[in-house]
């Protein structure tokens, strides 16, 4: 049992290192709100069978208080009345909206990346901001906040995309906690100078940056990853900014069944296998140490081996985690998750383990 205890000490130190020296990079900084760049913006939304969501959420994008932007709506081979909805908005806002209608193209596997590429080519402006049809900006200053981060140096802007809150729903808390913790990680790594991902529902980059890295060409065959894989291959410590002011968030409709959420997470985790080696190592080390921390702690407590030391180490780690997550949750308007964070973390760890094992034997095929 001494060996098990020493392994527990090692993984605890690794966990403390991540929380104190990696995630704290985001938790204890303030947003950079002293920028006054207002470049012309092309706002792109790619929609596939999203007629109802477009009806509900497009007005929030149209009502953005920004001096110079166009809204590029990409109909990605929809079989519902998505195109009709887009055209109805175009009639009402002819100068604001540009339509890109994309038919199925087997040569490019009919992916969202192909549709987005056509939308990017059709966009008028150099600075591009992206969102999804099933979400809305948290304020009518969202585009203003994201645009402030663009300059000659910053060609990629990472934003935060949260989820709507549903009262008395454990699944909703779990989804939002996973989203919060993912944001803590990608914001922190960006601040460390090793950005590795962003989320397509709140992301910006320039046309020049897109074509400089040949767009999605290196991963066009991979059905997901139009956001994180592009950022993974294109972002570096010199060209990436983060945006997390209160008005810069987007809010999406969360999954309401475990089955649909698990499928979504299977897609995301399968995409992560294509990250750069350094990113896979750092993310993998954190997850493995996190899993071992809880497994070994439970094992040592069950047999009461040096239980006082084990409880002391657990308490320290949970306290550090609580402080770090609390500081980040305040920034990202997710404070109601802080109290539940240790329980949500444990549940999430084992779901991720289940998904990882599941993906080893069968790849997700429904997108």
UniProtKB/TrEMBL annotation:
What phylogenetic lineage does the species belong to?
A: Bacteria, Pseudomonadati, Bacteroidota, Flavobacteriia, Flavobacteriales
Q: What family name appears in the similarity comment?
A: Belongs to the glycosyltransferase 2 family.
Q: Name one GO molecular function term.
A: glycosyltransferase activity
Q: Which InterPro entries match?
A: Glyco_trans_2-like, Nucleotide-diphossugar_trans
Keyword terms, alphabetized: Glycosyltransferase, Membrane, Transferase, Transmembrane, Transmembrane helix
Q: Pfam families attached here?
A: Glycos_transf_2 (PF00535)
Q: Where is the signal peptide?
A: none
Q: Which PANTHER family match?
A: POLY-BETA-1,6-N-ACETYL-D-GLUCOSAMINE SYNTHASE
Q: Which organism is it from?
A: Urechidicola croceus
The Glycosyltransferase 2-like domain extends over 42-176
Protein name (record): Glycosyl transferase family 2
- Transmembrane parts of this sequence: 6-28, 281-301, 307-325, 337-357
